[in-house]
Amino acid sequence: MNQRFGCTSAGCTGKEESFDPMEAHRRLADKFNALGSLLTSYMNEAPLDRALRNNHAIQLALATARIIGGTPVSKGEYKDCCLIGESLPNGIVQWNCTGVLVHPQIVLTAAHCHQPPRVTASVVALSCESMNHLKDAEVIPAKISVAHPKYLQTGLHDISVIILKKPATTPPCPLATTNELKSSQQLSLVGFGNSDVYSTRGFGEKRHVQVDIIGIRKDPNDDLDALEIKYGFESDVEILAGGLGFDSCNGDSGGPAYIDLGPQRKVAALTSRAFRGASKPCGDGGIYTRTDVELDFISHVAGSYSISLN
């Protein structure tokens, strides 16, 4: 495998940029125009129409592939949180999303990371803090990436299972149970995404931030309809978290949302997208795909390759 690394797409350079006021203004205008068009169309349609809401979820996930207000991780911290990349014809690996190792041969990430025009994930980089320093990283090719079959139909279940060609030596992080998640009040978000709200600054550097859980269904009788309509999420399979300048951002998509259980850390969810109606691309809070409700899907894909999660 040609070990050349880079990120050639717009918004994915990972290099610090000199500040250009005119360019910053142009980028900001472009972002607001794009999101404004989406939100205007949503306001003109029936807010209670579940099919429309599902379609909106897909569009927002792709438009705001979405760590703001956080800090760089220490060396060796969150080794299971990995870069997700695609091998280009020129031999360069284009890093574009974040994932998490939950089994020596299984990485989870967001389904929207691999929807057209993007291609299937082909490589992951574990045990690293930056895409610019991969000399000591554990880089493993992917055998296959399987997106949840209901994602394109509904916009929900924003999760893909990546089967690695060989087991990783990096220790995986266990998945949280439903009861463990329901008893938690905060999530620790980790990812390689942008650290600036309106630019690509910080992409490729692993950062973390702790955020409050705003909305989660703890009981079938919980009335969360108002939150679902306002923020555009489905409480049966997703969590609302973050805001007030603490959030995930572009490039963090598919990255882990951990819960801390004393000395142990577990994966509770994956970064999906921004709130509906967010006033800026990142920082207002986000929507996260619960991994506990996706366990059957994860186990099914793993079993297809004779892998047991237990």
UniProtKB/TrEMBL annotation:
Assigned protein family: Belongs to the peptidase S1 family.
GO biological process, one term: proteolysis
Keyword Hydrolase: yes
GO molecular function, one term: endonuclease activity
Start and end residues of each Peptidase S1 domain: 67-303
InterPro entries cross-referenced by the UniProt entry: Peptidase_S1 (IPR050430), Peptidase_S1_PA (IPR009003), Peptidase_S1_PA_chymotrypsin (IPR043504), Peptidase_S1A (IPR001314), Trypsin_dom (IPR001254), TRYPSIN_HIS (IPR018114)
Coiled-coil blocks: none
Pfam family, one: Trypsin
Annotated source species: Nitrosospira multiformis (strain ATCC 25196 / NCIMB 11849 / C 71)
Keywords recorded for this protein, A-Z: Disulfide bond, Endonuclease, Hydrolase, Nuclease
Protein name: Endonuclease G
